[in-house]
């Protein structure tokens, strides 16, 4: 049991300098960069949704409605 505890302590002790180096590092993205990316994604997503809504609302749905009415028009 003592060997097991010693082995665990050695592993933890070996990881401490690596954890300190990661926490001290200054590299990475800034908050402003991330906020701009999120804002761009929201705007582009909104534009895509608006375009799809306009396409389906004015072009696809009326044509689809006419086709369905013609398909079930038994009068000839």
TrEMBL record:
Q: What are the UniProt keywords, alphabetically?
A: Membrane, Transmembrane, Transmembrane helix
Transmembrane regions listed in the UniProt entry: 38-56
Question: Mind telling me which InterPro entries this protein's record contains?
Answer: DUF6133
A Pfam match is DUF6133
- Record keyword Transmembrane helix present: yes
Write down what this protein is called. Answer: Uncharacterized protein
